[in-house]
Automatic annotation (TrEMBL):
Pfam families: DM13. It comes from Roseivirga thermotolerans. InterPro entries: Big_2 (IPR003343), DM13_domain (IPR019545), Invasin/intimin_cell_adhesion (IPR008964). Residues 104-204 form the DM13 domain. Coiled coil: none annotated. Signal peptide: none annotated. This is DM13 domain-containing protein.
Length: 205
């Protein structure tokens, strides 16, 4: 029985490229970064391997530095320990970074009621999480907001702060030096005293 509970808390290992780069200006370079998360959703230091589907168009070195050599498009891949992430990048007339916003919707967990939509976005040097006006949550002691890679656990996650209100619009911010837009795939409302997830929502790409 105990083993079954542990198994439920495991998630697939994943690699996440932090920036959804769309294009690099020919003759210029762009530093890509990626993170590896283990089966507990925890970030681990790792030697990410980088590759380009066509190095003659855009090359990428062992550190993730991509250089646009001639017009065209490629798929850049970051991998580690069997897990991988990839982005399609064009070598063009200018450098453009794509999506800087992700959205999701809460669902209640463990018989608690949590509803409403949220938006996670990079704004200047901040990562901003906004609960929209339709947000509502069951009452509980010690409720906190977490980013996590596991909808059932905050292990390996990032704490955004104490829940400000059980309903309505509210904003949480942290520096992008602490966490990036694509580091985590879930937003959780978590009760610290009970060690219980009240609500979870998946961030869509």
């Amino acid at each position: 029985m105990g083993t079954d509970v542990v198994d439920e808390l495991l998630v697939p290992e994943r690699v996440s490229i932090n920036t959804r780069l769309q294009s690099i200006a020919v003759g210029e370079s762009y530093q890509l970064m990626a993170e590896f998360f283990n089966r507990f959703g925890e970030m681990e230091a790792s030697m990410i391997s980088w590759s380009s589907s066509n190095p003659e168009v855009i090359s990428v070195d062992d550190t993730g530095l991509a250089e646009a050599i001639m017009p065209g498009s490629v798929r850049i891949r970051a991998s580690y320990n069997g897990a991988a992430d990839s982005i399609d990048v064009a070598a063009a007339s200018e450098t453009q970074v794509g999506n800087n916003q992700r959205m999701g919707r809460f669902m209640g967990v463990n018989d608690y009621s949590v509803n409403g939509q949220f938006v996670l976005e990079e704004v200047d040097d901040k990562l901003r999480l906004t609960f929209l006006q339709n947000f509502s949550s069951s009452n509980g002691p010690g409720l906190f907001v977490f980013l996590s890679n596991n909808e059932r656990s905050v292990t390996g996650g990032f704490e955004m702060g104490r829940l400000k209100s059980n309903s309505g619009m509210q904003v949480y911010e942290t520096s992008i030096d602490n966490v990036r837009l694509f580091s985590y795939n879930h937003v959780l409302v978590y009760c610290k005293p009970f060690g219980a997830v009240f609500g979870a929502g998946r961030l869509e790409n």
